[in-house]
Specification:
The chain is of the alpha/beta class and 333 residues long. The chain has two domains: 136 residues, NAD(P)-binding Rossmann-like Domain (Rossmann fold); 186 residues, 2-Layer Sandwich (Dihydrodipicolinate Reductase, domain 2), CATH 3.30.360. The chain is built from eight helices and 15 strands. Helix 1 links the parallel strand 1 and strand 2. Helix 1 packs across helix 8, helix 3 runs parallel beside helix 5 and helix 3 crosses helix 8. The N and C termini lie close together (7 Å). 45% of the residues are buried. The mean pLDDT is 96.
Length: 333
């Protein structure tokens, strides 16, 4: 049954990709409303061959909307999402506003699709991008052999901070080549020819907020409140696609060969692991692709028998944000 859909934050990188996913996946849209901030109002967005005019998002913008896809910051979502629900819409929110709210399911469709039925506020939360990419690759293994501990290090692209950050990386790369001074504005530090601990606020335990999102969100999505998860998140000078080095500890022995077979059959996963050619996932492999790419499947020699290590790459804008939200919407129809 066709739905009336709204995309809020449509002119941003994630919002634009949401439009692409709705069209590419032939989502049953009856009417599409495209919204953004006042400065973007009046722009046009093309959808299925038609030009749609962007309107300014407001609390009274959601009359007749069945599904609202939020691609805005948390404070804006807290303003618009309750209004959309009051107007009768189901909200799928890409911000951090509702992820840890017990009344709001936190959903990765390949992992916990049934959680959408637990919705109590009319809001379904889209997880953090790095969490999604890790969960798609770890969950198939966890289903077969419970994972008791995850140690993950992320290599996060500029895309994680939106289009302005991507533009800054491109501009500073040109400045570096031309020998001009580099003056970062979006990032706190120079990213080109550099990397740094992810620029999210530190919590009292010394972990930044991105790292704690990966811990807390994974526990909620997996339904494993006691799972041990520790992350180190780093911003790297890559335009698009997050990569992750993941070390897993299992309850029982699991060989790399068994893990490979499980992952080759898993939804949303593409195994790229050629030891003979030393070929494993790269950002260029995963850019613009729906799947999470997995390689470097090997025993953790510090934990023989019960430990494995993986290297994964996933498009942060697609599976890490827009695609996951649209897949959640598909569960509703």
């Amino acid at each position: 049954m066709a739905k009336n859909v709204a995309v809020v934050g449509v002119t941003g990188a994630v919002g634009q990709e949401m439009i692409n996913c709705l069209e590419r996946r032939n989502f049953p849209v009856n009417e599409l409303k495209v919204m953004a901030s006042a400065r973007s109002a009046g722009k046009t967005i093309k959808f299925r061959g038609k030009d749609l005019t962007v309107t300014e998002a407001a609390a009274d913008s959601f009359a007749g909307v069945d599904i609202a896809l939020m691609a805005v910051e948390a404070d804006q979502s807290r303003e618009f999402s309750p209004a959309a629900v009051k107007a009768g819409a189901v909200v799928i929110d890409n911000s951090s506003a509702y992820r840890m709210d017990p009344a709001c399911p936190l959903v990765v469709p390949e992992v916990n699709p049934r959680a959408v039925k637990e919705m109590k506020k009319g809001i379904i939360a889209n997880p953090n991008c790095s969490t999604i990419i890790m969960n798609v690759s770890v969950w198939p293994l966890h289903k077969v052999n419970s994972v008791s501990r995850i140690i993950v290090s992320t290599y996060q692209a500029a895309s994680g901070s939106g289009k302005p950050a991507m533009d800054e990386l491109a501009e500073t790369a040109r400045a570096w080549v031309e020998g001009r001074p580099i003056e970062p504005k979006v990032f706190p530090y120079q990213l080109v020819m550099n990397l740094f601990s992810l620029n999210s606020g530190l919590t009292d335990n010394g972990y930044n907020s991105e790292e704690m999102k990966m811990t807390n969100e994974t526990r909620k999505i997996f339904g494993a409140p006691g799972m041990m998860v520790a992350a180190t998140c780093v911003r790297v000078p890559v335009m698009r696609v997050h990569c992750e080095s993941i070390a897993l500890e299992f309850e029982k022995p699991m060989s790399p060969e068994e893990a490979r077979k499980i992952l080759e059959a898993a939804p949303g996963v593409k195994v790229l692991d050629d030891r003979a050619k030393n070929r494993s996932p790269q950002p260029l492999d995963a850019a613009g692709r729906d799947d999470v790419f997995v390689g470097r499947i090997r025993e953790d020699i510090s934990l023989p028998g019960r430990g494995l290590m993986l290297w994964v790459a996933g498009d942060q804008i697609l599976k890490g944000a827009a695609l996951n939200a649209v897949q959640i919407a598909e569960l509703l129809v």
